[in-house]
């Protein structure tokens, strides 16, 4: 039974979605002067959109996420704030997905206030319309039921986190074989990321002291 619905996104999917986004932007008759990628998820789509629309000015704003201790709710804030003058310029903010909308709203407000551009629009490949606080000006897929898009640029990070998550939830099971880990991963997330990612993620968990390798098995130390 899948516990966290996931879609395994390929590099070809990303290229096709960014081509579709660029077409939508071009067809709207609005061409930005500057593209701003929200780091880190917006990097690859923003770079492709620059290529497909012939834009040379690509900037980035880094949004970090933290859990507010008092409320336990996730908060977004800009790390490394800087000020530039974009007077008279049209800005396109690009992110991979609009989920809660928090990073996008924060970035938009920050740019409006500090960089003073003439206009700001937002483009994302996916828009989770059922939960998102903002509707991007341009998007490719409207997603009605929440799902985790496993983009190729977070494959190792996600694989590591995903394994850790079921080890924690099944913490009575102290010793795992490689095959048990891979099978549980596939069952929980409904995707298969391939041996390279499972092996590297397990190495990472051993390095972090979550697991210990004993012969050909993995012993859970601390999750
Ligand atoms: P926003 O909705 O404004 O992009 P969030 O704070 O909800 O901001 O998400 C921050 C980042 O986390 C996203 O830009 C994306 O890189 C990643 N992310 C969030 N939700 C998903 C999801 N459902 N699938 C894949 N990545 C996601």
> How are the strands ordered across the major sheet?
4-3-2-5-6-7
Would you tell me the structural class of the helices and strands? alpha/beta
Distance between the termini: 23 Å
Count of all domains:
2
What Rg is obtained from the alpha carbons, in whole angstroms?
A: 20 Å
- Distinct compounds present: adenosine-5'-diphosphate
Envelope shape:
elongated
Number of helical runs? Answer: 6
Query: Low-confidence spans: pLDDT under 50, at least 5 residues?
Result: none
For the sheet with most strands, the description reads: 6 strands, mixed
Helix share, percent:
25-40%
Arithmetic mean pLDDT: 97
Residue fraction in strands = 25-35%
Please provide the ordered H/E string of secondary-structure elements: EHEHEEEHEEEHEHHEE
Under CATH at level 1, the class of the largest domain stands as Alpha Beta
**SS elements, strand count:** 11
In CATH terms, what is the architecture of the largest domain?
3-Layer(aba) Sandwich
What is the CATH topology classification name of the largest domain? Rossmann fold
